[in-house]
Amino acid sequence: MTTIGLIRHGSTFWNKEGRAQGHTDNTLDEEGLQQAAAIAERLSGEQWDYIYSSDLRRARQTAEVIADRLGIPIAGLVPEMREMFGGLIEGTTEQERLDRWGSEWRTMDLGLETPEAGQLRGSQAIAALAAKHPGSNILVVSHGAILRSTLRGLVPGLDVSGLLKNTSITKITLADDCWECGLYNCVAHLGPPLLHS
User: Where does the record place the catalytic residues (predicted)?
Assistant: First the structure.
């Protein structure tokens, strides 16, 4: 059985501002580095053989923190697991999109990568890693939208409507040519959410 741990990168300033990142090569913010350390500590109690990362900096930084804690090098960068391209909306907030293009902006051709294209490239990339390291436990640090699109391709019945949280881990396994998801969007390593009165 081959196990893949899909991890979304730690937080960035653009995450906090609600800006579409896409291929924009942002770095982690201070909280993002802390989140990366927390998931790294959690994973140190498990058996992982390989770590791969998207080639975008926020994913690479997250992967480097994990690799250092686990004592295994990053096996490679996987450009196919970079975030879905945001076209003209990259760098904008929802309000800025409304101001610029109106409430129907989602129906306009603004150069965004299609969900189908993301699903195809992501699922092919994960399948290739599984074929390269059969029977291994492989971590892949990537991005929210491409990971959800990838999961739609690999585990068609899975409900991926919930947005992936920063440094969440989703575990999928491949046995007898069939992918299954045993854990989705888990951030137990970040502790309970703060309660606001």
Answer: 9 (tele-phosphohistidine intermediate), 83 (proton donor/acceptor)
